[in-house]
Amino acid sequence: MLLAAAFFGMMVSGCAYRFSNLHMKAPPGARTIAVESIYDTGKLAIPHEILWEQLQKQFAINGRLKLAPANQADLYLRAHIFRSVLTPTQIEKNSLSEPDDFLMDKDGVLQPHPLSAYPDYNVASSYAKSETLNLNVRVEIWNLHTRKSLFTKDYGVSTTWQVFDSSLPPEYLFLKSEETFESSFSSMAEGLAKTIVVEFLSRPF
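RESULT FIELD:
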């Protein structure tokens, strides 16, 4: 157990070293950057403003470029969500049964089944315990002085969150799902924003 923990610690510290050892620098002559509000043409209503906030936050944390309004900035970043897909996952089936025949034969007389023989149609035949959101985001960064594109890349990211928890009363499920989704989306947006900042500032100019 101690060996495994030590090995895991070495792996983590090694990854951290490689990340921090990246040579990052701003493009020549650039000191400021403006981050446009997220351009979203996906089909889903998602809190894309969280990604916008994270992009600004990660540039501020990095410190190599200062945030500025578009009319005062050297660089301009645009992030375009051009695809968003929501997929139910962890599908569970309810054990609902139906009568074999609509009518039953009793003493030579056809009679309908009693209502108790039919399933409760207020209960879904299947339900999803979680959902997965897949996003495709195109990031473009321009030099506002030269009007040249410095960086263009498409990113594919996803996040999964729990929508059903049997330990919760039904009336709390929706609220809990929304809270979990926002938390998962925030983590995904933070990771994507960090990647964008590092990849842009680590490329040769």
